[in-house]
Design brief:
Blueprint: E1 2-9, E2 26-29, H1 43-52, E3 56-64, H2 73-87, E4 94-99, H3 111-123, E5 129-133, H4 141-146, E6 149-152, H5 161-176, E7 182-189, H6 205-216, E8 221-227, E9 240-247, H7 251-267, E10 278-279, H8 281-290, E11 296-300, H9 315-321, E12 330-335, H10 337-345, E13 351-356, E14 366-377, E15 382-388, E16 393-397, H11 408-412, E17 422-425, H12 432-437, E18 440-444
Parallel strand pairs: 1-3, 1-4, 4-5, 5-6, 10-18, 11-17, 11-18, 12-16, 12-17
Antiparallel strand pairs: 2-3, 7-9, 8-9, 13-14, 14-15, 15-16
The structure holds zinc ion (ZN).
Domain Microcystin LR degradation protein MlrC C-terminal: 298-461
Pfam family, one: DUF1485
Protein name: Microcystin degradation protein MlrC, contains DUF1485 domain
Length: 477
């Protein structure tokens, strides 16, 4: 039994400035793929499950990057060509892929569909193809046409990426053993939903995810999923989806399960509220000032690098600089290569003047001065801690990064986050580690490339009407 594996992951924010080139991706090809760091998320679970079943693995290619602006055509074509270079002329019994599912490429709003079509062309119509997808995947007709089985994350924050890979591999193995004949049931519905309203532990998501586990128990159903799409993409395929993998012999049940799941989600559409207390930025800082416990972790939700934003908006930082009732706040992270280079050139304890980041949407940098306190480099980014003269400490990075998802990162810069009254993070919903540490959590609903007020975004290609952009949207399966 010989199975091809591969990975392609990018969550594309089409509202973000610039483009994402191949240099932003961690990549690996051929035999380097299975053990490569950072090129796959569910790939480890896929490879391990296949290896446990004594499958021979044919590694193709992997490419993964931090969410960001529209992917350059050349980068996507490289990935597609690398997949094909390793599939053409080979005979495989199955294919199992690790895909995000919400990538947008210049001139190609459905790159996962295009990649799957290319894989299908290489392996032929009879070879089963399964995939692990992110919960925030945007499912398209072409993806459904070329996939036989799908498993999706059921947690947000995503803590089940490996298990999801194992589920996708198990679907493939069941098909290869002849135990199952895979079929998909797909029901898209016209809804945009941000992750900040749909964490898996919050209602109504928790109950809806419970329904998936119940659906899995239905005769003829193997793996039921919701895919929530990605709201910061102006995509003609935008929407939410129920996608169910079941047995071809029970195709009516599989279709009906998808329909029921979609209807159940739609019925509860008005209940998806922010999963964390949310305020406009000034009110969020007032709330933080009034809190007794520390630290209050304030998420700067308009500038989330984990959802593709530039991580360089200084709007919230500018407001922090104006206040004296928040102790000495720390801001992590502002991505600004020039400012980082200035800090890098300075010894610890040296004064620096910076033109930092940009105001949103004006684009003007914030002129600040301060003292460089520490440097810390990771595989992801080089960072410096600067103590600004106005009483705020800010971490400056040489590039966009999500390294601050782990509070231990701040400790390496000499900051004890538990000792601060306020920690402001370029984040949406917090990572589990920050949730453990925060005495209180707040969303500051800043303007930016991940603006949480979806109705204010300039959508042109999203099919309308769409909830919640339009009033009185009706839908039935
Ligand atoms: Zn996701």
């Amino acid at each position: 039994m010989r199975v091809a594996v591969g990975a392609m992951s990018h969550e594309t924010n089409t509202f973000a400035d610039g483009t994402t080139g191949i240099e932003s991706f961690a990549t690996a090809t051929g035999t380097d793929l299975p053990d490569a760091d950072g090129v796959g998320r569910s790939l480890g679970g896929i490879v391990e499950t296949l290896a446990d079943a004594d499958a021979e693995i044919l590694p193709t290619a992997g490419a993964s990057a931090l969410p960001g602006p529209t992917v350059e055509r050349e980068a996507f074509e490289w990935v597609r060509a690398e997949f094909r270079a390793r599939l053409d002329g080979e005979t495989v019994d199955g294919v199992c892929l690790d895909l995000h599912g919400s990538m947008s490429v210049e001139g190609e709003p459905d790159p996962e569909g295009a990649l799957l079509a290319s894989v299908r062309e290489a392996v032929g119509p009879e070879v089963p193809v399964t995939a692990a997808l992110d919960m925030h995947a945007t499912v398209t007709e072409r993806m459904v046409a070329h996939l036989d089985g799908v498993a999706g994350y059921r947690t947000a924050p995503h803590t089940d990426v490996e298990e999801t890979g194992a589920r996708a591999a198990d679907l493939l193995l069941a098909s290869l053993s002849g135990e199952a004949s895979l079929a998909l049931g797909w029901e898209p519905f016209p809804m945009l939903l941000a992750g900040e309203r749909s964490e898996s532990e919050a209602e109504p998501m928790r109950t809806l995810l419970e329904r998936l586990r119940e659906a899995d128990e239905t005769d003829g159903v193997y793996d039921a999923n919701y895919f929530l799409g990605f709201p910061w993409a102006d995509s003609p395929h935008a929407g939410c989806h129920a996608l169910v993998t079941g047995d071809a012999s029970a195709s009516a049940t599989v279709e009906e399960t998808a329909t029921d799941l979609a209807a159940a989600f739609w019925r509860r559409r008005d209940e998806f509220d922010f999963t964390t207390e949310a305020h406009d930025p000034a009110a969020a800082l007032d709330e933080a000032a009034a809190a007794d416990a520390r630290p209050v972790v304030v998420a700067d939700t308009g500038d989330i690098p984990g959802a593709g934003a530039g991580e360089n908006a200084t709007n919230l930082l500018a407001m922090l600089l104006e206040r004296s009732d928040l102790g000495r706040p720390v801001v992590a992270v502002v991505a600004d290569a020039d400012s980082h280079a200035t800090c890098r050139a300075a010894e610890r304890g040296t004064a620096v003047s910076l033109s930092l980041g940009r105001a949103y949407p004006e684009g003007t940098p914030l002129d600040v001065s301060g003292t460089v306190l520490a440097h810390h480099d990771t595989d992801d980014a080089r960072t410096a801690l600067v103590s600004l003269d106005e009483g705020v400490d800010v971490v400056v990075a040489d590039r966009r990064t999500n390294v601050h998802r782990d509070p231990a990162f701040l400790r390496r810069l000499g900051v004890d986050p538990s000792a601060r009254r306020v920690v402001a993070l370029k984040s949406g919903y917090l990572s589990p580690a920050w949730k453990d540490l925060a005495a209180k959590r707040l969303f500051a609903l800043t303007r930016g490339e991940t603006d949480q007020r979806l109705a204010s975004l300039p959508y042109e290609r999203v099919p309308r009407p769409c909830y919640p952009l339009d009033e009185d949207v009706t839908w039935s399966p």
